[in-house]
Amino acid sequence: MGFRVMRHAAMTPPDRAMVLLSERIPKRCEDVCFSISGDEIRASLDGDESVSVTRDERVEIGRRAVLDALEEVCEREPTLALDWYAVAPAG
After folding, report:
1. For the residues of the chain, what is the DSSP string, one character each?
2. Rounded-to-integer distance, Cα 17 and Cα 60, Å
3. R_g (Cα) of the chain, nearest Å
4. pLDDT tens-digit profile of 23-63?
5. pTM strictly above 0.85
6. Does residue 64 contact residue 55 with C-beta atoms inside 8 Å?
7. What is the residue extent of each domain of the chain?
8. How confident is the model at residue 21 (pLDDT cuts 50, 70, 90)?
9. Dihedral sign, CA of 85, 61, 65, 45?
């Protein structure tokens, strides 16, 4: 399952928020793999959820995993704030 990391629309992150994150985010964090293409950050998850889980539940579980990985990065880097970023399913 794939996701997009973007600037949070309801917050006021600095103009360079995505650049700052792309400079500091690892290629892999736990079960989440990140890739950067231009100013876009994509995330994909390893592993499959149980087939008994609905698609909406899988999306929310995946989104939460990506947010948890971003939180780790932001906690280590004082120039970043987690609330600057939003995660949505890649479409």
Report:
1. -EEEEEE-TTS---TTHHHHHHHH--SEETTEEEEEETTEEEEEE-S---TTS-HHHHHHHHHHHHHHHHHHHHHH-TT--GGGEEEEE--
2. 24
3. 13
4. 999 999 888 999 998 778 999 997 655 667 788 898 999 99
5. yes
6. no
7. 2-86
8. very high
9. negative
